[in-house]
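Hey team,

Sharing the Release factor glutamine methyltransferase run so nobody has to redo it. Sequence (304 residues) first:
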Amino acid sequence: MPGRVTAPGQRQSLRAAVRAAAVTLGQAGVASPGVDAEELAAHLLGVERTRLGLTPLVEPDWVSAYAELVARRAERVPLQHLTGFGYLGRARVAVGPGVFIPRPETESMVEWVVGALRGRQRPLVVDLCTGTGAIAIAVALARPDARVIAVEKSVEALVWTRRNLTAHAESGGTPIELRGGDVFDERLLSDLDGAADVVVSNPPYVPAATPVEPEVADHDPAEAVFAGADGLDVIRPLVSVAASLLQRDGWLAIEHDDTHGETVPEMLRRRRVLADVADHRDLTGRPRFVTARRVPLAAADQRR
Ligand SMILES: C[S@@+](CC[C@H](N)C(=O)[O-])C[C@H]1O[C@@H](n2cnc3c(N)ncnc32)[C@H](O)[C@@H]1O
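Structure output:
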């Protein structure tokens, strides 16, 4: 942006402002500087990014406001905190301090879940560790006949979960039930034992010593990201919770760290009540989520 400012009162080229912003963001180490520069401009103009071309010139006030946004992004404040929204497939969720920003890496798991629900009438889906509620909302949008239950324990995150689930219902979506509390509190979900068609979760799973980008280190809640030295402190007990919620032939889908493409499936294969364990890759081709089918204990015992 510096060096591009024109004389006071003079309108200037939007394209030039965006190009300069992309350079600034690139120098600050932002991973996708061009896209982010355009997204910020689109946000400030109140248009889709694809429609930026319809605004060739911008006013000096606009340029100042844009420069401020670009400067904050250059400080590695997440793009979604600046625009106020994150996306997971068709789900658009409000985000900000205190809640994890949904990632595109999770979209493949949501698609898989929607596929697993095919042929099931009025299915029950439980989204453990829901954060913004993005997975629950994405599933509910794909399957309006489903009963979807979202579970989250963080008080700060729950402010965003409630806001998003309310917005979803107010825009005509099938209401999603929210259970605020710890997934490991036995009383929280005991009424759902053996009832779920699908249990889905994107829990905290990053090993503690893993270096992360400033956007994550400084802005995602640590308890949403990290899960002990090996990253499995939450997934390990979560598998038992998921298995007990599932009905016979129900499916679980759990996202995991890309270094756990063998560890987590192996963990599931050791469970007598789970079968058909498979690991799946995300949009970038990295190992990202595991799935398994619930089998009755008796049948599993016979296999031993
Ligand atoms: C990686 S974030 C994922 C959020 C959301 N599912 C998504 O994909 O964007 C993990 C979430 O799990 C929540 N969480 C961690 N441990 C939990 C627990 N024991 N019970 C309920 N929620 C938990 C965190 O507060 C955080 O919101």
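Confidence is low (pLDDT under 50) at residues 1-5.

Ping me if you want the raw files.
A.
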